Structures are given as structure tokens and as C-alpha cells.
């Protein structure tokens, strides 16, 4: 029923049900300068919601019936209070999720993650080693893989889950199937593939960005997605919302709003400093 009401809210452009997820941008600061990301251009980076304000927002989320708090950035682990925020979220009976590049996670931070009752850690990884390091900086692939391995040693079935988000781009389109295999071998719980946008702080920008999957690579993208669809996973879940096949139409420029609805504001409420 909830999924239907969210879908109907989007169709009517009027909320018939509370959002399920609240996404809170903790900071614009980041320890990396990824080539396809525009968050680093947002200024001033020092403008951040206070700990007290975020506690208040979490209280409001609880009252609205929201079930999950998604902490994003920038890089959330640059906030010294991030573990306090996750513990506070847990105390309210809500799930907490953090998106991260993973580079800062060592044994000490992994212990803090366990103790803070975080429910899910979602890592950004945009290809195999050479490709990911092209986009995110030399050595970032190994650091992210090491972080996942450290957390695997710390967690148990009742602790937290892990995931990988991969932005589909021209330089990694031949590696999408291999990314699923890698994630499965790493014992990651879920992987999702997301579309590239020119400005991830302004989704209305219609200009084609750098690293766009061009017409000459559409057949490769289609083949990779077909391979992923056939893959027999040992552990990992391939998250599709919407279908991965929609990515082909997206990069062809033929995807319609009826085929890929935006549920921002209906399924997910977005909160940032401004």
C-alpha cells in the first residue's frame, strides 16, 4: 500500500503519505576531488547544520513516521559528530545509512561504526582499480577495498550491511559486470548503478556532462546490463530502481518521465544547510 501511495503522490504531485527516507547532507567538505562530482564547488563549505539542529530534524522525522535517515556529503566521516548522530538516530528507533568514499575508514573508525549502531554503509566505487583511480585519485580503489575488508571482519549478521554505488560513465561502462563480481567476492550485500549527471547539486542541468556514455558505447552498456541480469549471485543483491535497462534509454536520450519517475519529496525528503 505504501509503494502505491508514493507512486500516486508522484502522479498527482501531492503528498498522500509521509516519506520513507530523510536524506541529510552533513557537509560539502570532502577529502577527494572526483572528476565527475560538483559537490566540491559548493561554497562556503563551512556552512553545516549543527549537531543540535540535526537532532531536531531527526526528532521531526520520527514524528512524521519516516523510517530511515540517510547521511550524505561531501564525505560524512569528516564530521566529528557523525557517530553521535547515528547513535541518536538509533535511539529514536530509526535506521541510519551513510554514503562514503571509504578512504578514511581504518580499524579505529570501523570500531566506531560498530559501536554507533549504523545500519548500512554505502561505498562509492566507480570501476576497477585503474578506472576508479582515474576518477577519484590514485590509491583510492585500494583504500576503499581495504575499508570494506576491515568492516567485513568487524561485522556480524546482526550488525550492519554494506553496499557499493557505481556511477555509469564512458570509462567504466565495460567494467559494470566485473563490478558485480567484485562486490560479490567482497561479500558486499547490495550494489546499484546510478546515472551520470552534469551537476549533482543541480539535477535540472540539461547539458551533457563529461564522461557521458556516447552513442558508440550504447551497445556495450546494453551487453553489460544483460550480463548482469544473467549473473548468478552468491551473496550480493543487485538493486534496481528503476530497471537497469532504463540506463540504456537514459544515455540514448530517449527515456521518458513515465519510465523513470522522480520520487524526491515523496519517497525521500532532502535536507541541507540552505
Give an overview of the whole structure.
This protein is α/β, with parallel strands linked by helices and 274 residues long. It contains nine helices and eight strands. It has helices at residues 2-12, 51-64, 82-91, 107-115, 129-136, 140-154, 176-185, 218-230, 245-252; strands spanning 21-25, 68-72, 95-100, 120-124, 161-167, 190-194, 237-239, 268-271. It has an eight-stranded parallel β-sheet with strand order 7-6-5-4-3-2-1-8. The model has no long low-confidence stretch (mean pLDDT 91).
Helix and strand layout, with pairings?
Blueprint: H1 2-12, E1 21-25, H2 51-64, E2 68-72, H3 82-91, E3 95-100, H4 107-115, E4 120-124, H5 129-136, H6 140-154, E5 161-167, H7 176-185, E6 190-194, H8 218-230, E7 237-239, H9 245-252, E8 268-271
Parallel strand pairs: 1-2, 1-8, 2-3, 3-4, 4-5, 5-6, 6-7
Helix pairs in contact: 4-6, 8-9
Summarize the structure.
The chain has 274 residues and is of the alpha/beta class. The chain has nine helices and eight strands.
Strand proportion:
5-15%
Summarize model confidence as the mean pLDDT: 91
Low-confidence stretches: none
Instruction: Kindly report the spatial arrangement of strands forming the biggest sheet.
Output: 7-6-5-4-3-2-1-8
- Tally of separate helices: 9
* Helical coverage, percent range: 25-40%
Number of strands: 8
Distance between the termini: 33 Å
Order of helices and strands: HEHEHEHEHHEHEHEHE
Rg, Cα atoms, Å: 18 Å
Shape: globular
